Amino acid sequence: MVVGRVAVVTGGASGIGLGVSERLAARGDRVAVLDVQGDAARHVAKELEATGGQAVGLAVDVRDRAAVEAALDTVRERFGPIEIAVTSAGVDAGGAFTDITQETWDRVLAINLTGTFHCLQTVVPDMLAAGWGRIVTISSTSAQHGAANRAHYVASKGGVIALTKALAIELAPHGITVNTIPPSIIDTPMAQAGAGTGHVPSVDAIAAMTPVRRAGVPADVAAAVEFLCSEDAGFITGQQIGVNGGWYL
Ligand SMILES: NC(=O)c1ccc[n+]([C@@H]2O[C@H](COP(=O)([O-])OP(=O)(O)OC[C@H]3O[C@@H](n4cnc5c(N)ncnc54)[C@H](O)[C@@H]3O)[C@@H](O)[C@H]2O)c1
């Protein structure tokens, strides 16, 4: 069994991406933490190295194709070809449909969907060359069942689910699996901020409505990501793996 894969985690400086970075580093992967918050990404990488892991933190805005390509070249020079990609970089957004400006629509789609496209198109050639790869995108339950007052966010995450399914079929013959995790409420800075602006209920309120009666934590998502990025998960592709405490549609 191969240990110590090369993994890239976008949005790795906070929340779910941070939890995933910690989990993959702990199992021995060399982890590249990419985030628009460059200082935070570098700090996370230092912390991972302090606990015995191998990591690099890089400032990247996933909307910027050239920056994504340059960062991933740095990862290849440091660690070798990229074998695992987890795309957690994203932004939340709220507002009545009739109030959404084109500028906001474009920004949310550019980060959540096109940013995922940039990262995956840049890493997939490494995986094709190796005949092995694991991709996990982070989508949202809101795209599975719809949600009021967040049409741009929901549409962007619906696009992520569709992109995941399309790539799963296309890449399956090459030993590359592509799955998505659509979380429900995970207690992160994004979830707290969304409740703060009032376009989603508080974390505690959603936890009370969740069958397991708690909100998720980044480690819940990270555990599922670790499994999906394992050798054992090679027959699982194109799936929406709910990490949602039993949240039902
Ligand atoms: N927390 C939840 O309840 C929840 C639920 C469903 C889906 N999600 C999704 O999970 C993912 C992670 O969210 P989180 O809750 O951990 O939020 P978070 O805000 O804690 O983390 C998101 C990270 O993405 C980074 N980021 C934002 N824009 C970026 C850009 N342009 N380029 C690079 N990095 C960028 C941020 O700096 C941040 O570090 C997001 O895609 C989010 O939509 C979260």
UniProtKB/TrEMBL annotation:
Stretches assigned to the Ketoreductase domain: 5-184
Gene3D superfamilies, sorted: NAD(P)-binding Rossmann-like Domain
Family annotation (PANTHER family): 3-OXOACYL-(ACYL-CARRIER-PROTEIN) REDUCTASE, 3-OXOACYL-[ACYL-CARRIER-PROTEIN] REDUCTASE FABG
Keyword Oxidoreductase: yes
The family this protein is said to belong to: Belongs to the short-chain dehydrogenases/reductases (SDR) family.
Organism: Frankia nepalensis
GO molecular function: oxidoreductase activity
Protein name per Swiss-Prot or TrEMBL: SDR family oxidoreductase
InterPro entries membership: KR_dom, NAD(P)-bd_dom_sf, Sc_DH/Rdtase_CS, SDR, SDR_fam
Matching NCBIfam families: PRK07231.1, PRK12826.1-2
This protein's record includes keyword Oxidoreductase: yes
Biological process annotations from GO: monocarboxylic acid metabolic process
Record key words, sorted: Oxidoreductase
